[in-house]
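The records we work with from here on pair a chain with its fold. These numbers are not coordinates but entries in a learned vocabulary of local backbone shapes. To see the layout at work, look at the sequence and tokens printed below.

. . .
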Amino acid sequence: MIGASNFFELAVAAAIALFGLQSGAALATVVGVLVEVPLMLALVRIANKTRHHFPAG
């Protein structure tokens, strides 16, 4: 997660510079990151709670 977040500010700046402040690209760049982390944590929690349904190995 740390490696992916190093270029967050650069990605936001590039999206704003290329597409403008009111563009969907700038919004997606910000909102995508804010949604991604809680979603991944929820998926990990579901996987851990249902691990007994799947064979090991």
User: Anything to note?
Assistant: Residues 10 and 41 are 25 Å apart (CA to CA). Helices lie at 2-5, 8-19, 24-49. The chain has one domain: 2-53.
